[in-house]
Amino acid sequence: MLLNTPHLLVRHLLLSVLCLGCAGAAAAGLEATATPAADAAPAISVEAQTAAAKAGDAGAQYALGLMYAHGDGVARDDAAAAKWFAAAAAQGHAQAAYNLGVLTVNGRGVARDYGLARGQFEQAAASVPSAAYNLGVLYDQGLGVSPDAAQALAWYRKAADAGHAGAQYTLGQMYYEGIGVEANDATALRWFSAAAAQGHREAQYNLGVMAYVGAGMAADLKAAADWYRKAAEQDDPLAAFNLGRMYHLGEGVMRDDVQSVHWYRRAAAKGDAFALNNLGFMVYNGLGVPADPVRAYALFTLAAARDNANAKKALDLLRPQLGNEEVARGEGLVREWNAALKAGLAPAF
Q1: Rounded distance between C-alpha atoms, residue 83 and residue 78, angstroms
Q2: Considering the entire predicted model, what is its pTM?
Q3: What is the domain range of residue 290?
Q4: Roughly how many angstroms between the first and final C-alpha of the chain, as a whole number?
Q5: What is the mean pLDDT of residues 137-141?
Q6: Could you tell me if residue 335 is inside a domain?
Q7: Which of 205, 211, 278, 343 is most deeply buried (CB count within 10 A of its CB)?
Q8: Radius of gyration, alpha carbons of the chain
Q9: Who contacts 116 (Cβ-Cβ below 8 Å, separation ≥6)?
Q10: Are 236 and 202 in contact (CB under 8 A)?
């Protein structure tokens, strides 16, 4: 039976969709307040907000748009939300312009139109970092505009300088891989560190990678384990897998197969094929967990179904050791665990 080596590729850009409610490395979504003071404002009834909005109060128009967008005190109505955001944006309300852009990108309440969304984000970008970040996404992917790496970089940098964690992560990725800029590990490290300090999971994982391989810094296995732990505690499967492997090998941490199994299980529960294979190895050999060839068979089968080469080799070695009844029990576990994984539940590995 063979253990898989660690996940060491820094993640690619996560820029495929702009969506309401997204955060971090995905595109930014609807934002609830224009200023911190708005959070402290007393609740105002829908009727009062509507009256003020109809009277031309931009703040009320924006607030009413939020109420309709979220179904807060009224039935959710995206068209009404877009209408009131547009009214406020026409009076220069930057947050409303940004939120209208989010609705427009998603085709919520209005037709999806990346070009119109770009204009709305441009109106907001001077004061709303998420708008600058989303402009970077649009230029990066060529959505409603010709792809332009220089423009994407400029907008990401504007958002990152304003503290946007997703933009900081993305800049780190671009400098690490040399996307639109000359590759520079030290600069990548700086931006990943800024995002990670805000709890950005993928940035924390990437710092673990860089500490492990010594990119932009001297290799530091303890630091790698620390960063992997931070990301793994946020349910990052790649970080959990790497941390499990480090516990098994005693890299940067005291060797502890019980901890290794714990983190492999966390990663395997997300369907990570490497983790499923390595957990099968631990179960087969009784490392950190009682030896159980039937459960190992099921784990190797799940990993092999996800195209893990080591798991396929393990099954070739393990099948001749099992009787028909044991194989049948193993296949039952495969069905049970597969159903749990598909339902987004953690199987009882």
Answers
A1: 8
A2: 0.86
A3: 261-349
A4: 18
A5: 92
A6: yes
A7: 278
A8: 25
A9: 101, 104, 144
A10: yes
